[in-house]
Amino acid sequence: MKEDAPELLPRELSSRNWKPQVIAISGVTDAYQPVERRLKLTRRCVEVLVEFRNPIVIITKNELVTRDIDLLRELARFEGALVFISVTSLDGDLARELEPRAPQPARRLAAVEALSQGGIPTGVLVAPVIPGLTDHEMPAILSAAAKAGALVAGYVPLRLPYGVASLFEEWLTLHRPLRKDKILSHIRSIRGGKLNDPNFGTRMQGSGPYAEQIAELFEMSCRKAGVNSARPKLSAAAFCRPGPAQLCLF
User: Fold this and answer.
1) N or C end of the chain: which has fewer CB within 10 A?
2) Total domain count, the chain
3) Rounded to two decimals, what is the model's pTM?
4) Cβ(146)–Cβ(226) under 8 Å?
5) pLDDT in tens, 133-189
6) Can you give the residue range of the structural domain that contains 87?
7) Residues whose CB is less than 8 angstroms from the CB of residue 224 and which lie 6 or more positions away in sequence, other chains included
8) Which H, E and C letters describe 203-225, residue by residue?
9) pLDDT over 90 at 246, yes or no
10) What average pLDDT does range 87-111 have in this prediction?
């Protein structure tokens, strides 16, 4: 995030060219990385969004998002907030190997619970789903998330664009050498024979029989856990440009 984002954001939202709409935070890079504790760039941006009542969706793996429950609760009053916590595995050892600097699974589930109890519509994103390594955990992850208060869920199979593929192969060589070939074979089976599929229509879900099995497991697990039965609504109807005239949409 740019250091001047909190100053640039109100200018953009104040523009007559801005069409009130849901803003996604952390779609590419987690906005709640450890440095956020000191810089508070994300919090300051959320403060702006609260001021304008502009709806947001946040995706993060960091429990630090619970620091901003006070702001998110205010947005939630206007159907303006939805937070997804990503969970890769419930196995603490595996999670530590995959994401050594990220919060452990129990802390992420605790964040789901805190957000839910704080009145924030909350979901879980099972991501990345690593075929042959973590896909079997999907039912347990969704069940645990639902018990913590998650209302909705999604999943994303592992994506390996650019240099990430070679890094992941190195990781397998180091941590899962005996399973490396099988895992890579499963990944290729959902990516058209390659380690990555950049095509818009399939890159987020994969394709082929194995990808279909993962999709079926997800749907079945959601039904059993009781998530995705009713998706929280997000609305920009309460958008308001601060000022003497209080230029709200309603």
Assistant:
1) C
2) 1
3) 0.94
4) yes
5) 999 999 999 999 999 999 999 999 999 999 999 999 999 999 999 999 999 999 999
6) 5-230
7) 139, 142, 143
8) CCCCCCHHHHHHHHHHHHHHHHH
9) no
10) 97
3-state DSSP: the chain helix, strand, coil percent, rounded to 5? 45, 15, 40
DSSP-assigned letters across all residues of 144-201:
HHHHHT--EEEEEE----TTHHHHHHHHHHHH-TTTHHHHHHHHHHHTTTSS----TT
Residue 150 lies in a domain: yes
CA distance 4 to 52: 18
Instruction: Output the domain CATH number for residue 201.
Output: 3.80.30.30
Q: In sequence order, what are the residues at sequence separation of 6 or more whose Cβ sits closer than 8 angstroms to the Cβ of residue 190?
A: 131, 157, 197, 206, 207, 208, 210, 211, 214
Residue type at 169? E
Q: In one letter, which amino acid is 25?
A: I
Q: Which helix (H) or strand (E) holds 60?
A: strand 56-60
Q: Indicate whether 114 belongs to any domain.
A: yes
CA distances from 60 to 82, 108, 161, 210 (A): 11, 9, 20, 27
The neighbour count for residue 70, using CB atoms within 10 Å, is 11
- Given a cut of 50, whether residue 250 has pLDDT beyond it is no
In whole angstroms, give the CA distance from residue 11 to residue 185. 49
CA–chain centroid gap for 40, Å, is 19
Coil, helix or strand for 227? coil
